[in-house]
Amino acid sequence: MSAPTPPEFNESKPNGGNSLEEDVNAQYAGLEFHYVYLMVCAFLVWLIIPGIGFLYSGLARRRSSLSLLFQSFAVAGVVCFQWMFWGYSLAYSRTANAFIGDLANFGLKNVVAAPSPGSVLLPEIVFCLYQMLFCVCTVVLVSGGSFERGRILPSLIFSFCWATIVYCPIACWTWNANGWLYNLPSLDFAGGGPVHIASGWSALAYAFVLGKRVHKGEKLHGKPHNTTLVFIGTVFIWFGWFGFNGGSALNASVRSMMAAFNTNTAASFGVLGWVLVDYIRSRGKFSLVGACSGAIAGLVGITPAAGFVSVWIAALIGFLTGAICSSCKNVDQWLRIDEGMDVFKLHGIGGMVGSFLTGVFAQKWVSALDGASIYEGALDGVGVQVGRQLAEICAIASYSFTVTCILLYAFKFIPFMHLRVTEEAEMIGLDLDQFMDEQIGDWSILEQHSLQGVSHPSSPQTSSEGVGEKSA
Known about the structure:
By secondary structure, the chain is mostly helical. The protein is about 60% helix and about 0% strand.
């Protein structure tokens, strides 16, 4: 029995047809499993958003943990609006140039039932939702660069602007059929460049522009206040990443299944790579937060390579990325930039490592598992692919860091858009400064009394800084 013929995009029906006059589902008859699978993957990707919130909240000091949970959802709201307004069109319009899309799909015009620009097997509305969640995850990662000292309102407005002038152009370069990196071609299966390199370098820029945190009378943030939240956040992220990588083939082929297997493999070996370096460095001690960081590093490293490599190479990529990121323990001190959430270490450095190794290890037999794509790396004799990957790394890193710095410095000249809280607000914590008191609870009130030197009969004897551990 022959497979159903995929539909073709019809310029006379850019929205896929008039649902009042025809059955727009008929064109996908026999292909429903592809877009149902992608919808399930989209639901999994959504879990990464609260996962990042939990992770960041657990890593921060208690008095600023609520602000990071809030930002994960608030950013999701802002970016959803941005994507519907013009973000999707700027990234994926069919009439885009090599650098950025036009406004052909402004306000999601005609984004309904037509075959999507990413895959003719998907209605465009499914593709749009899936890619929107990628953008949300990326912007939430960037917000980690402002933790414990960034004002929330300017951060949300910055999120809209950053998604527009940084993420959307880079997504267009990488994944739009007209993009210059797409046609180079650089190999980026699920977002090593647009998601990880861009977010890592942009978070570094955010931390650089804000400056170092104030820490009068106390040690600068060195330990997470709640390792349980860190663990739970990592679980959400790991689980959500099955959809992040597994769905990026944009079909339900064997290649998608390989990408999902590679995702788990790289995360597992990332744990081993990070923990091994930690164990050697600490002379026989383990770290739960280190294991969580290793899992995320492995996930980041395999993201660009998931649909291009075999399972044992995925294991190697995960292990190397975990070990390299763990070895960069003092990168903040080397750069003299206070980026305490390790976004640059895990996503910036991890993304660059993964993108480079994709050029080395990409195998054509793996990419051909979906019956359509054939891409090769140095392992298959195409050594020039390493150079193409380096071009992608340099272009995305330099663009995201430079444009993010310019954007943030511009905010300083806009009334009421100053990026940083006052020194007093930073010392008492963002939760008390930026949120209604009744939402915070007694614990943060007690901590405020402690910071101001006020004793309280029911206050705990241990400080929030003594709970948990800090990854390398």
